Structures are given as structure tokens and as C-alpha cells.
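For the sake of transparency, this paper describes our internal protein records without simplification. The record that follows is passed on verbatim for readers who wish to inspect the format:
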Amino acid sequence: MITKTATATALIVEDVQTDLMILTSYLENLGWRVISAVNGEEALTYLSANTPDIVFLDVVLPGRSGFEICRTIKSQTDTQKIPVVMCSTKNTDMDRFWGLKQGADLYLTKPVNRHDFVDILQKLVNK
């Protein structure tokens, strides 16, 4: 079972309501608190005042891409240690390579199944 504190918080940056609902339900069923943002700017605004335990970040977002947002998160002293999981329909080897190159800790392709999601969360929480 996943080890976490009672106040574990995840930030999900996702503009597709269905994907947001799926990821939210996975996390809430595990007892996590979920904050959501529909674009990168909203996420960065949240991160300027809060430190979630993990960020799930879509690649294709309105405005700046998830790759750009990941690079920003990982380049700032206050947020660089927050684990970032890229979550995207972009599933080529190059997409995965580029996501990890931007600083993502892991790359998960959509549709996200619960088993893979829990495995990834387990790896990052116990890191």
C-alpha cells in the first residue's frame, strides 16, 4: 500500500474534464487531496504559494505546453524537488524522452489505467 501523510496533496494540470475526473478519482480513492488547474499559468500561480506532494501534468495544454511548464517547475528553487509525472496521449519514444529531458520524474501515457497509476505513485512516494 502507498505510504503517505494524511495531508498529501496532488496538483493535476489537465484541460480535458474526463481525464481530470479519472485522475482525481484515482487519487481521492487513495486518500489524497486534489487541486486542479486547466492550464500551465494557473498551475504556476498555485505553485507560487503552495507546495503539493506531486504534480500530474498534461503535455497538450492551452497556452504553454506541459513540457514548458515542467521545465519551469524544475528550474525554480521552491518547486524543483516536487515530483512531476507527465501524463499525455503523446506516446512515442521521443515524447517520453523529451518529457524526461524537461525534468519530469516519470512519463505516463493516456488512457491511464488505475494499476499503472498506482505503481507510479508508489515509486514516487517511496523515492
